Amino acid sequence: MKILHVESGKHLYGGARQVLYITEGLAAQGVDNLLACPLGSEMARQQPAGTRVLAMKMGGDADIGLAFRLARLIRAEKPDLVHLHSRRGADTWGGLAAKLAGVPCVLSRRVDNPESRLVVALKYRLYDHVITISEGIRQVLLDEGLPAGKVTCVRSAVDPAPFLPEVDPEAFRAEFRLPRDALVAGVVAQMIPRKGHRYLFAALPELVERYPELHVLVFGQGPLQAELRADVTARRLDGNVHFAGFRHDLAHWIGGLDMLVHPAEMEGLGVSLLQAAAAGVPVITSRAGGLPEAVLDGVTGILCPPGDVAALAEAVERLAGDADLRRRYGEAGRARILAEFSIDGMVEGNRRIYEHVLENHR
């Protein structure tokens, strides 16, 4: 079996990391993998094991030429199937390229952004099957008219190994220049509107009054960085909110958090939540998209209504004041990740879809 994977993201965020897991897992099973990705991207530098990387120009949704470049690539390489892993033009132009080349095509959908029924009816004709990373996303597509037989949920996975070692609390606080008695909440997300940073910042002033030892580490980067920094300054939170940037060594440190807060308005599943849970960190997040599949309310963390600042503040305060509850949620989260979110299971789920599509195509 020969698969051409297409990933148009330039950074190694959660979705791109899933592509690494899939390609390396399939390669271990003897599948011949090709990976088309942008020139200069982090994915091109990673060179996943057992995968031939084909770096090329990918200009996003407006880059109609991508359809023809991918079609030429498909005709030259003759894969059995094309797997499109991202948006940014790869979904539409990649689907069109596969149609032009006469090769079956599978799309992974990682976001729960709504689309009109007309868009779904037209766009999704390009794909032989759609794989969603959560049941929440699958339900969105079903509600928008996609036939049930054309869409399957295969949840994202996490490699727990890097997140299992204990983190030295003193080394953690020294690394991020935090007081020794700091109670540390973390945010791990791109700085874009739907991730909801502003809701946590709105809740913080009263929380810091009650818990002056509460500090927030903000990991990530994105277009809202300057705006979010200004918001923190305007709320006089500079002493309690620390922007840590994008860290390639996050797996080494995330277990040092006392809690992870992810107040997103929309989310496909939330890989950073799975990673935090693997590290034994309790999670506070929103009851939106696939997030209730990543966090079990009252078992591995707390779910809040999206955009509800008061409920978010109450959840943070509940964990801040109860170390035993933080420990119980963290232990339950780690056990659930080990049992339900394995890479092997995710790889096998994707492979079953390939085989189903290829059988129907024949």
From TrEMBL:
One of its GO terms (molecular function) is glycosyltransferase activity. PANTHER family: GLYCOSYLTRANSFERASE. InterPro entries: Glyco_trans_1, Glyco_trans_4-like_N. Residues 14-160 form the Glycosyltransferase subfamily 4-like N-terminal domain. Pfam families: Glyco_transf_4 (PF13439), Glycos_transf_1 (PF00534). It comes from the Bacteria. Residues 170-335 form the Glycosyl transferase family domain. This is Glycosyltransferase family 4 protein. Keywords: Transferase. SUPFAM superfamilies: UDP-Glycosyltransferase/glycogen phosphorylase.
